[in-house]
Write a structure and sequence with these properties.
Layout lengths: L1 H17 L6 H4 L10 H21 L1 H6 L1 H21 L5 H36 L3 E2 L3 E3 L8 E9 L5 E7 L6 H19 L25 E6 L24 E7 L2 E7 L10 H19 L5 E3 L3 E2 L2 E7 L5 H50 L4 H15 L7 H14 L4 H12 L2 H16 L4 H30 L1 H23 L1
Helix pairs in contact: 1-6, 3-6, 5-6, 5-9, 6-9, 9-10, 9-14, 10-11, 11-12, 12-13
């Protein structure tokens, strides 16, 4: 995997070199765009990839004709996305917004893959540089009391397939006087240790806990049995077909640095039947154990160079989990890329709510300006000018952006009737369509009751605004229900746990 990660990095550097002359200033100067670190670099790479895709698409024009139905579906999807983006930002062209959307999505995906590749490469390298096997056949042994060293090894004997071994290198050992004292302590507690779920050594009905070592003591314990058909050395008791109680004499051998101590215990051992592969594995383990015994007092353990009469090559088995992380990363990038559409839909829903909240304000301003003697046209121009003055210090409001677009249409020669119809169509809300229809009807037929109708519409809009505020308050209360329940559980735990502890 590590070579694959380096290959991906090489592709990235080649991509950066090929795309370094691309101009992306048009995509970085847009308002409210928060750029991420290295955004220009990855944005240039995205532009280069898009240009390459266009060139390849031009060369495969015939194939696209054969896939006309698929192209139509993509075109419909692109049109829907462009329409949604145009609603969110009416001052920019639809084509430019769609292009910018896909470029920023692609640049984000490239950034995530690049960072993820670096992380995976670091994980893979740390696994290789942090190994325990030194210079091919040396393992550093822990000092006294530091515990054993567990290492995964791969042994390849001449003419045989590699075998993976999980081996434990023991820590450095104690002196003879210390061993004698430790044996007396270990033998005193071993009787209770091996009983397992049994109550007494005189009545064994369940499996024994025949340990091969005792925590805090350096001994390797081996077991011998006078009846292997009843008790196995792993402690399993086979008494299913036993008719009468039988006493099995077991011997526990405490071994340490050539010294041996003996205690009598009951135990059952079953001879195991091994396959050829298992025999080979045991042969390798026996050779490792022999080498370990021979170098117990040394600070290193040298692995055997031969198993039997055949040479062996040792390799440490590195657990490289970076590949799984990289697969998860690929899945995450795909989800992030396609989640851009969901973000657009969330922004559209936010826009809809904002338009509804601003509707009473728009109707009130129209009523106020027309009551002061302004025409409908001048009233909209006045609202647009006021928004421009405070637009720099305040966040964007969608309805006023639409009003600015309406003013541009009126200044460019579009009739008022058509401009108001366009405004209602862009807002896509019934209340705005109704208002624009009312204004257009007044221009076509003329009416002296327009101001009175606007005042009544302002009253209705205010009532609707109060109902909307009440609904939003109820939704906020529902969202706070889960955090409140969590806080209640925490408070109850803080009260009840000390109370229970005080009785113990």
């Amino acid at each position: 995997m590590i070579y694959g990660y380096f290959a991906i990095l090489g592709c990235y550097f080649l991509l950066f070199i090929l795309s370094h002359k691309k101009d992306v200033s048009a995509y970085r100067d847009q308002a409210e765009k928060q750029d991420y670190p290295g955004g220009a670099l990855f944005l240039k790479a995205s532009v280069w990839c898009m240009d390459l895709k266009k060139r390849l698409s031009a060369k495969s024009a015939n194939k696209e004709k054969r896939q006309k139905s698929m192209f139509c579906r993509k075109q419909m999807y692109g049109n829907r996305l462009g329409t949604n983006l145009r609603l969110l930002n009416p001052s920019m062209s639809e084509k430019q917004q769609v292009q910018e959307f896909y470029l920023r999505q692609c640049s984000l995906v490239l950034l995530i893959l690049f960072v993820g590749d670096l992380l995976c490469l670091g994980i893979a390298l740390s696994g290789r540089t942090g190994g325990l096997l030194q210079e091919g056949n040396y393992i550093n042994r822990n000092t006294y009391g530091a515990g054993d060293v567990k290492i995964a090894l791969s042994a390849q004997i001449e003419g045989e397939d590699p075998e993976e071994i999980l081996y434990t290198v023991e820590e450095q050992k104690y002196t003879e006087e210390e061993v004698n004292a430790l044996y007396r302590e270990a033998s005193a507690c071993l009787t209770e240790v091996i009983l397992g779920g049994n109550s007494s050594p005189d009545r064994i009905t369940e499996d024994l806990d025949l340990v091969t070592s005792i925590g805090g003591y350096p001994f390797q314990i081996s077991w011998d049995s006078s009846n292997y058909s009843l008790i196995h050395t792993d402690g399993s008791v086979h008494n299913e077909i036993l008719e009468d109680a039988q006493v099995v004499t077991l011997t526990a051998y405490f071994r340490y640095e050539g010294m041996e101590f003996k205690e009598i215990f009951p135990i059952e051992i079953h001879p195991a039947v091994y396959t050829e592969k298992e025999l080979l594995t045991r042969k390798i383990e026996a050779s490792l154990e022999e080498q370990n015994q021979a170098s117990r007092t040394d600070d290193i353990m040298k692995l055997p160079e031969k198993i039997g009469t055949k040479n062996v090559v040792w390799k440490e088995v590195i657990q490289d989990s970076s590949g799984y992380f990289f697969l998860l990363l690929l899945g995450a990038t795909v989800l992030i890329f396609f989640s851009g559409d969901k973000e657009v839909e969330r922004n559209l829903e936010k826009r809809k709510k904002e338009l509804l909240l601003d509707y009473p304000e728009i109707v009130n301003k129209l009523t106020l300006y027309m009551g002061a003697g302004m025409t409908i046209r001048n009233a909209f121009f006045k609202m647009g000018e006021d928004y421009k003055k405070v637009g720099v210090s305040h966040r964007k409001r969608y309805i006023y952006e639409e009003i600015l677009l309406l003013c541009h249409e009126l200044q460019s020669g579009v009739s008022e009737t058509e401009a108001y119809a366009h405004l209602g169509k862009r807002c896509q809300l019934q209340v705005y369509m109704k208002l624009c229809a009312l204004l257009s009807q007044n221009l076509r037929r003329g009416s002296n009751d327009l101001l009175a109708m606007l005042r009544q519409e302002a009253v209705n809009a205010f009532e609707e605004r109060k109902n909307t505020a009440k609904k939003m308050g109820e939704e906020a209360g529902t969202k706070l229900l889960l955090p409140m329940m969590m806080m209640l559980c925490i408070v109850m735990a803080l009260i009840m746990i000390p109370a229970f502890l005080s009785f113990s």
